[in-house]
């Protein structure tokens, strides 16, 4: 059994064949799916999918790219839904910062405020975090530690192999490994993978993005977790069944899945 802990099934690229996408994944051993909340505009679609499929769960949150919509979005309305398993994806992303140094600092400050606000909501509602970090490892780590976010834990989605973040495993955080691990230029992640405690590993696709080899360039989908599992199995020199068992248990524990 595999659990895809991060799959944007509410993305319009799945509108035409969602049932077929899910059936392919189920036939391949993927038995649970978690839709991360990234854009408030798609939450209605996410709920439609969740309500129609027993094995699909969701998280509610605001991605740093959509942070301006945070204050008009009533997260509390969704977080008590019986199939809401996390807050996020939320975090920091400095990759696209533009403008003068002062404008960039203002943007960073806004992102931090929205991230901290979502951590506080997660603590209130006792939900783990789905955390997005890009070019912002130091600030993200400081915020997580200062806010005592380890109390509720979470996953570093699409873990970027930054060794500075590895110590967060001791603070209650998990590491989401996706299709990037199969890329030829992913040497840093390949080298760091063995340093992540096995009990902190999770499998994810981030579909429709970051499609693993040998399907890179196509739309990603949850069935492709099988390629991620095989690559991790190869790199860690352990049977793929063991990788599936460990990561499934980890996901069930973090997200309280049954």
What can be said about the biggest beta sheet? Answer: 8 strands, parallel
Number of helices: 8
- Tally the beta strands: 8
Question: What series of H and E elements makes up the topology?
Answer: EHEHEHEHEHEEHEHH
Strand content: 15-25%
The end-to-end distance, rounded to whole angstroms, is: 13 Å
Low-confidence runs? none
Strand arrangement across the biggest beta sheet:
1-2-3-4-5-6-7-8
Query: What class would the helix/strand composition place it in?
Result: alpha/beta
Percent helix, as a range, is 25-40%
Average of pLDDT: 96
Radius of gyration (Å):
17 Å
Q: What gross morphology would you assign?
A: globular
What does this structure look like?
With about 260 residues, the protein is α/β, with parallel strands linked by helices. The protein has eight helices and eight strands, in the order βαβαβαβαβαββαβαα. The protein has helices at about 20-25, 45-50, 75-80, 100-125, 135-145, 185-195, 225-235, 240-255, and strands at about 1-5, 30-35, 55-60, 85-95, 130-135, 155, 175, 200-205. α4 (about 100-125) packs parallel to α5 and α7 packs across α8. The protein is globular, with a radius of gyration of 17 Å.
What's the short story on this structure?
This protein is an alpha/beta fold. It is built from eight helices and eight strands; from the N terminus they run βαβαβαβαβαββαβαα.
Topology:
Blueprint: E1 2-4, H1 18-27, E2 30-35, H2 43-52, E3 56-60, H3 76-79, E4 84-93, H4 101-125, E5 129-134, H5 137-146, E6 154-157, E7 173-177, H6 187-193, E8 201-203, H7 225-236, H8 240-255
Parallel strand pairs: 1-2, 2-3, 3-4, 4-5, 5-6, 6-7, 7-8
Helix pairs in contact: 4-5, 7-8
